[in-house]
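Progress note, project year one: complex with 2-keto-D-gluconic acid.
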Amino acid sequence: PQRFSRVLRVGGLKPSLMEALEAGGALVLPDDDRDDMLGRHADEIVAVVTSGRVGVKADLMDRLPALRAIVHFGVGYDGTDADEARRRGIGVSNTPDVLTDAVADTALGLLIDILRGFSAADRYVRAGEWTTKPMPPLARQVSGSRVGILGLGRIGGAIAHRLEAFDCTIGYHNRNVVESSPYQYYSSPRELAAAVEVLVVAAAGGPETQQLVDRETLDALGPDGFLINVARGSVVDEDALVEALQSGRLAGAGLDVFAHEPEVPDALRALDTVVLLPHVGSATVQTRAAMEALTLENLNSFLADGTFVTPVFQPDQKETR
Ligand code: 8YV
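Model obtained:
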């Protein structure tokens, strides 16, 4: 049998990764009318390859009795019910580290853009307004600003590292104090927001961080404050964010992620005080190639010996042997 004959792809992935899976004989879960395909092949499938945003929920796990591995293309895996996978002894892998730099670069890009008003200034030049209208208002200085990082993991740490070169004062909130960190810890998102000019969201998605940035946190950030989000739209109360921006209770936002991608609220698109990106945090040639390679390494390693190279948690060995 072909190498990936017991592998199922769920959802769209990088085209070259989909081709590699297909060349190895992987099956594809159809978007609709899944019953026919599952009826014929469900019992054979031991591994799913999917993106963090699509993932595998309990209902699909129910249909795949031999499933032992959920391999994610991406560091986030919030589209998968990981608790349910763990309970069933199904392993979960992701692609950490290889995208840290690209996503941290994106956060800095958004931060500089929104504080300095570069995208808005670009629109002003393109519209021919330089010759007809007053200059855009003066912007905020990035260097020396006070920045709070929500989620001081790999990506949050890489963002902080970059901000040090801008002489920023850095604080953070994290579910646990990071003992090795030189930055000031704040015990809640709200306290952190009250202490900084820019709040950067770098926390993992999922139920534990759902709307961690709520209305009160946005109000603590205040009318001179900016929000950056390169994590997941679910971490921010998007309705509260729109209202805060519309009413001027928040100065601006730089967003790579949204609550209901690819839907972006019309109200956000109408605002000049936001920079909006279509979830491109990791979207460089180099990083996506490294993510693809690591995804295939995890899959091949699982097929060879039942373990992942970069596990969130390994498949339950007792049950596979
Ligand atoms: C990917 C991401 O674009 O890694 C993540 O968690 O959100 C991005 O790097 C996405 O997961 C790929 O579908």
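The chain has 13 helices and 13 strands.
The chain has two domains: 7-97+286-320, 100-276.
No further modelling is planned for this target in the current period.
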